């Protein structure tokens, strides 16, 4: 197979992707041409913020074709149809591989503690694993390979007394990995919400695959925030976590635990300032690879 690489301006990307698919590309992916440079841009959408842009200012389009002839023909026609805003970067040969095997080989069992492991379905669980979550990579974030997820899982596995038989809220559930772990470690009714409908589907499937019950839904499913949850987990990113401070704090039961991740070490103080305004004293509870886990406990008087 051959990959055709093009650089395109932001407003050309959608039309070019469609043309490439019309020209029999097997797949088209879009990446930031300025990734890992000063000009790198983040694209994400959050409530009360402008909608995310569909592409980067300078995007790299990578289109996969079955043969060099197909890729060359596609490049020629594409440049004829879109003479402006496109630059040909080149053709790259992609060696034939067993893609399923290659992808699977990148996901090995992940130890969270000595006894708690996240294990893809194509692997045997290690003998030391007493609690096993079966999880395969899918459309939603959360396979246990990211430090932010691992730190949350570690907190869950080592603080089961804080939430045993109690309701838990997983805000920004992705694959549902934290909600499923909370259930495996004894949580009561567990609600898992996400703004991404694909995450809701993924959480439903993953919970079923692990034989636990989780209530997945969009954030509205969490209803009015009325101090119901002894444990609220949110692994998102610093900016949305700051915006969500009043909401997450209001979901916490008196004496409840708030566990936040998706925060870089240098962002600790801004998070502390945002949560101090809603009466919570966040402290760093864990750290891994430049990421931190922050924890606060709501006063029992509230
Ligand atoms: C980093 S992933 C974490 C997934 C999983 N909880 C984990 O720990 O691996 C963050 C998730 O939060 C969701 N998200 C982002 N902003 C959100 C918001 N304002 N409300 C609810 N979910 C949000 C994203 O769609 C994404 O699935």
TrEMBL record:
GO terms for molecular function: protein-lysine N-methyltransferase activity. Its EC number is 2.1.1.-. S-adenosyl-L-methionine binds at residues 149, 172, 194, 235. It is an enzyme of class 2 (transferase). One of its GO terms (cellular component) is ribosome. Coiled coil: none annotated. Keywords: Cytoplasm, Methyltransferase, Ribonucleoprotein, Ribosomal protein, S-adenosyl-L-methionine, Transferase. The keyword Transmembrane helix does not apply. Pfam families: PrmA (PF06325). The keyword Transferase applies. It catalyses: L-lysyl-[protein] + 3 S-adenosyl-L-methionine = N(6),N(6),N(6)-trimethyl-L-lysyl-[protein] + 3 S-adenosyl-L-homocysteine + 3 H(+). InterPro entries: Ribosomal_L11_MeTrfase_PrmA (IPR050078), Ribosomal_PrmA_MeTrfase (IPR004498), SAM-dependent_MTases_sf (IPR029063). GO terms for biological process: methylation. It is found in: Cytoplasm. Belongs to the methyltransferase superfamily. PrmA family. PANTHER family: ELECTRON TRANSFER FLAVOPROTEIN BETA SUBUNIT LYSINE METHYLTRANSFERASE. This is Ribosomal protein L11 methyltransferase. The gene is prmA.
């Amino acid at each position: 197979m051959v990959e055709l690489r093009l650089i395109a301006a932001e407003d050309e990307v959608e039309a070019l992707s469609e043309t490439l698919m019309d020209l029999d590309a097997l797949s088209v992916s879009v990446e930031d041409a300025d990734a890992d440079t000063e000009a790198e841009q983040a694209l994400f959408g959050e409530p009360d913020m402008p909608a995310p842009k569909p592409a980067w200012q300078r995007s790299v389009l990578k289109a996969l074709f079955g043969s060099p002839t197909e890729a060359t023909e596609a490049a020629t026609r594409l440049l004829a149809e879109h003479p402006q805003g496109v630059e040909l970067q080149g053709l790259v040969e992609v060696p034939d591989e067993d893609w399923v095997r290659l992808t699977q080989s990148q996901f090995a069992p992940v130890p969270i503690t000595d006894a708690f492991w996240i294990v893809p379905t194509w692997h045997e669980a290690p003998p030391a694993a007493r609690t096993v979550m079966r999880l395969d990579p899918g459309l939603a974030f959360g396979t246990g390979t990211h430090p932010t997820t691992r730190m949350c899982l570690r907190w869950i596995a080592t603080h089961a007394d804080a939430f045993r038989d109690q309701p838990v809220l997983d805000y920004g559930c992705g694959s549902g990995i934290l909600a499923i772990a909370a259930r495996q470690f004894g949580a009561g009714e567990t609600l898992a919400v996400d703004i991404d409908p694909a995450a809701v589907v993924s959480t439903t499937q993953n919970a079923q695959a692990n034989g636990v019950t989780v209530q997945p839904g969009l954030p509205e499913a969490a209803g009015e925030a009325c101090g119901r949850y002894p444990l609220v987990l949110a692994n998102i990113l610093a900016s949305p976590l700051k915006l969500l401070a009043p909401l997450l704090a209001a979901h916490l039961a008196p004496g409840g635990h708030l566990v936040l991740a998706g925060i870089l070490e240098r962002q600790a103080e801004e998070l502390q300032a945002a949560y101090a305004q809603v009466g919570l004293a966040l402290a760093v509870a864990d750290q891994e690879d430049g990421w931190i886990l922050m924890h606060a406990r709501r006063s029992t008087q509230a």
